[in-house]
Amino acid sequence: MRTHFCGLVNEAMIGQTVTLCGWADVARNLGGICFIDLRDHEGIVQVVAEPDNPAYPTAAEVGYEYCLRITGTVRARHSVNDKIKTGKVEVLAESIEILNKSGALPFYNHENPGEDIRLRYRYLDLRRPEMQKTMRKRIALVQALRRHLDASGFQDIETPILTKATPEGARDYLVPSRVHPGQFFALPQSPQLFKQLLMMAGFDRYYQIARCFRDEDLRADRQPEFTQLDMEFAFITERDIQDFVEAMIRDVFSEVQGVELAKPFPRMTYAEAMRRYGSDKPDLRIDLELTDIAELVKSSEFKVFTDWASNEDGRVAALRVPAGATMSRKQIDDNGAYAAKYGANGLAWLKVEDLGKGREGVNSPIAKFLDDATLAAVLSATGAQSGDLILFGAGPWKTVTDFMGALRIKVAKDAGLVKEGWQPLWVTDFPMFEWDAEENRFVALHHPFTAPKVDDVADLVANAKTAVSRGYDMVLNGNEIGGGSVRIHRSEMQSQVFDLLGISKDEAQVKFGFLLEALKYGAPPHGGIAFGIDRIAALMAGTESIRDVIAFPKTASAQCLLTSAPSAVPDKQLAELHVRVREK
Amino acid sequence: MRTHFCGLVNEAMIGQTVTLCGWADVARNLGGICFIDLRDHEGIVQVVAEPDNPAYPTAAEVGYEYCLRITGTVRARHSVNDKIKTGKVEVLAESIEILNKSGALPFYNHENPGEDIRLRYRYLDLRRPEMQKTMRKRIALVQALRRHLDASGFQDIETPILTKATPEGARDYLVPSRVHPGQFFALPQSPQLFKQLLMMAGFDRYYQIARCFRDEDLRADRQPEFTQLDMEFAFITERDIQDFVEAMIRDVFSEVQGVELAKPFPRMTYAEAMRRYGSDKPDLRIDLELTDIAELVKSSEFKVFTDWASNEDGRVAALRVPAGATMSRKQIDDNGAYAAKYGANGLAWLKVEDLGKGREGVNSPIAKFLDDATLAAVLSATGAQSGDLILFGAGPWKTVTDFMGALRIKVAKDAGLVKEGWQPLWVTDFPMFEWDAEENRFVALHHPFTAPKVDDVADLVANAKTAVSRGYDMVLNGNEIGGGSVRIHRSEMQSQVFDLLGISKDEAQVKFGFLLEALKYGAPPHGGIAFGIDRIAALMAGTESIRDVIAFPKTASAQCLLTSAPSAVPDKQLAELHVRVREK
């Protein structure tokens, strides 16, 4: 139906007759001449219909977003438009066919309306060149990943969507079975166990761009269904896996984004990341670090410090905010309120107005509790300079780490201290378990299939609290973009880990019996990783929201505003599925 | 963990030390020497441990399917084994590490046990070289398709799995919403409407290897979830689409299967296919054709023939079975019973024992009802030769077409008349509607979004019964491997087609309101096609069952024997989803 794309018409084509298809991005009549900006996915070209032109009557009818097929001659443009690729040429229309009209638009292409209206008219939203660019970035990312993996001998294998209730900890979406009354499929939270089974099945290298489902309350940037690049390797160590995928991510960023990432990526243990950055996914674009000062303040007179400094589960940490001494009392209070959201009971602070003046040079409600030596030691340990602000957190280790880590990011953003660029790193040596005080049991920090560093079951049991796993995360600019581990490949170890996680033998048999069974038939050592495609695409596209890189996303209340899903269904249909809606 | 793959060890490596990982395909002790056939996905190599060898004690422990890591030296083999790629060499073991033991196996690698046990221990089933080969054929197919499409500017876009009840006619799988009590998502029967919306959104060329779901009673070779290559094009005609995908399929068969398909594919209208082959997906590997003889027999004395020959909705057809005159009475009766399953009320037959002898030369219960001229005309029309059998069907047009078409395939298979090779074709010009006598309304032969050939709404309404659609199927060896159409892109036409299909305005608004709305904003002309990946992979792999090209398929009763899905879930979980199980 066309000879060329609108956005690719160029000066070399002057004098040629072309047929173009697309939408009227703009249609107007200026001084008796019709101008139509005809748009397709490649871009926009100006089409002109002059009054003596046979296409003129049709051109005069054209409105915004009319779908058109236009034949005409390419000619040089009088007034060059530098803003568009085709700005040196235009097409003099010979014939215009209206392929479809458009009614009054809910919004115009050039606007960025509220998200609800964008989602309701998603087909119009996606026509906007900005959204085309964003979506095509995601497509290019996936294509580059596939190319890399196909060339490396990975097998792209589909795993079931209708499957068994999965054990990743989140809530499952369920699907009633018609054939088996009272029974349900679950949608997979990830293909974790299937990819492990594929390694036991001898596929050696597996990947899948896999749809995953979690029925969670949606925080700002979660979706009920999301996409991960799921990978698994047999006969391999964690370092081999990391080296392979690091090279893959570096190649893909180079190809799709034109960005050369660090080679090699920095590496950091979980312990170091939490200590220095208060996060297991530190944003290394921010130079600020936490300073542990428990040793310095443990004999001070500030009770909150001394109590937690001498508690083995406590932490006292300082965060130097460069040039932060100009912060108003209100700004400091706001930071305190922000830290409180992460569990802080209060936020002590100290302004270094003149470092040379010692105690006279600082302004702080807590300075009076610190003797001269302690004050000097704290200033020295944090590397404070005149004009800086120091924030202090004291409390349980995990709480202080969390809120000081969150504060580190907030104050850096507020002060414009986040550097440009891409800062990847590996975080390794995660604890195997975390103690859940509420449930009074261990929970898995990665998932229950992650291998411990120790190979010996008795050793793991004896040292469960401090056991380190063979898990690892890839972090980019403060986002965990990938996480994986070497898996348990021996039945006894898997049973023992279930036991440590408080999963009874019976429960393990019901939920994971097939895995325990499969591990008995020569399961190979194996491991893998999964990358969050939506998040990586959003980072590459420079958008905050993963909804911008999903063609038909759902709202925060898990609705599709375009199709009105979910919706009520006739009771007859539910009867066939042996379920009914519960009355309140 | 390894230096080479087992199956790739070769003579060039003689003298080298290699480290291999894999499974003991066979492990035995012959005359005091341990022989292990070590297998990975590339193949098998023989490993030898002699008694004076430090690896010997471990080698002696190894059982079938133990997972091993072996280091040793490649050497020439005394007795060459021509059956395996590595048959000229073996590896003299220096060290053997047992990575994992295997318990007593439910079946051995070399067996092909019952399908239930294969599915329950799928990870062992898939280890069999035959299954590795079959699955890897599917993987190669998908990879080749993607490569072709990526290179042609197609955009791989994911569409939702949690969506609105879809309208393809089959039963939906439903997913209760937790956030919206009493409401349900449906799993997509295909991404049909989403791909149309993507064309309206300006993506121009779309594809997706898409998971689709139908909650139907599973006939022999259906799965609750299946995979299609879903494609859509904007600004295009059906012939452009067909030419593009025909070239794609030809390329992919050449690349993956080493087969050159006909260029171009033969083309046939629906009417011709039904007339000549009694099927809209004719298997052209079979030369036999149906012959319409209504005109020849309409004044005969055989009432069944004359009645149906003069009925405008009737059909009288003959099928010549070459050399079929040797068929016994029992064989003919069996064919009659087979035809009865497709609706036949009886099957007349005629054996041509000696063509030269006229009436004397035929043996048939119905010959006496045909005068000499009619008999001669029938023999001539069917092209009968001495030794042939002719089968006759008379009845309603659709019934005769169906059972004669089915018979055509059966008698050809029985007589070994199905030729080797690959016979693709296009079937076009499908009727727009089929009359459903039970429901007393039209049903769509493709789906309700298929455009009619006529562009004019009034014309369609006036001639609905005979209207032809812009739909098309790609057929290969009697299988419909792809089906598509140009879609309706105007709101009025879509509303009219819904109306003709007996869908009320209200129902259309509830189910398809978003589509009708979307068509109002300059929707472009568009069309596409979907290919059944499971079926194409099964054809390529030479297996009858699509279950052999799905890693974790379900049984005919829609169960996963490996994970025991579906399964019961705690009522607490159902309460969160606002549903309960219905009591009987």
UniProtKB/TrEMBL annotation, chains A, B:
InterPro entries, A to Z: Aa-tRNA-synt_II, aa-tRNA-synth_II, aa-tRNA-synth_II/BPL/LPL, Asp-tRNA-ligase_1, Asp-tRNA-ligase_1_N, Asp/Asn-tRNA-synth_IIb, AspRS_core, GAD-like_sf
Residues annotated for L-aspartate binding in this entry: E168, R214, H446, R487
**Gene Ontology biological process terms, A to Z:** aspartyl-tRNA aminoacylation
One Pfam match, given by its short name, reads GAD
Q: Which GO molecular function terms does the record list?
A: aspartate-tRNA ligase activity; ATP binding; nucleic acid binding
Regions annotated as coiled coil:
none
EC number in record: 6.1.1.12
Supply the PANTHER family for this chain: ASPARTATE--TRNA LIGASE, MITOCHONDRIAL, ASPARTYL/LYSYL-TRNA SYNTHETASE
Protein name as catalogued: Aspartate--tRNA ligase
Organism source for this protein? Arenimonas oryziterrae DSM 21050 = YC6267
* Gene name per UniProt: aspS
